Every structure is written in C-alpha cells, then in structure tokens.
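Milestone M4 deliverable, item 7.
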Amino acid sequence: MKGRKPQPTQLKLVKGNPGKRAIPKNEPKIKPAAPRVPVTLSDEAKKHWKIIVKQLSDARIMTKLDSDALALYCEAYARWVDANDKIKIHGMLVKTPSGYPIQSPYLGISNKSFEQMKSIMVEFGMTPSSRTRIQAIEESDSDGDGWDGI
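Output delivered:
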C-alpha cells in the first residue's frame, strides 16, 4: 500500500481531526494482553521475547494480536546478536581462498537484521521519537469481544 500510514483514531481526535475526514465509528478496541512465547522462536529470541513483552505490557501497548510482529522482531534480534558475535570472532574482513580481503558475510546479516529490528521497533513505539506517536490502550468496561459501539 502506497502513501502515508493512517493515523490511529485516538491521535486524530486528540489533534482535533485536522484533515476533517470522517472518523471510523466501529473501530475494534483490543484489550492489552501479554501473548505467550511462540514455540517456533529460537532460544535467543525467546529470551528477548520475555524482556520485551514485559516492557510493552507495562506500557499497555501489547495485545495478543501483536505476537507475530513481535516474533519477527525477536528473531531479527537473535540473528543480529549471532552475527555480531561472529564478527567479534572473525572480524569485519575475511580473506577469500585466494587471499583477498572481503567484507564478512556476517556484517551484511547484522546490518539487515538491524534494519528489520528498527522498522518493527518504530511500530511498537520502542524508539524515543516513535513513542510520541503511540497511544496506550485504555481500560474499558467492554464485554471483551473487541467490538464496542456496534
């Protein structure tokens, strides 16, 4: 999908709906909840999952729907850690069989994982500037079906 990402409805309301577009009335409201650790995660990703879920849950921005995105982040983190450990051992340059120095393949893995982590971190408000755009989920008296106001 091209163009800007849509702003959350709550943020539009706080800003006074500057675009004067219609506000969605039946937007689902999802309760904050800490999802379980996916069994498919690597060991390093599982360790990081527990730390991040606790922090996001404390900030009241974690829901069970977010588990797949968080799993992607945690696996990217695990790849980044592994690649950086290999760079510490082998260095950023390695020699080819013919003796020429080239960039370590682990440096590319590290950089790619870092970019993936950074893009997902923004979605969860895990950077200082992105945190200003994230709205915490409010407690509600709903019946728990996630479709209030219908």
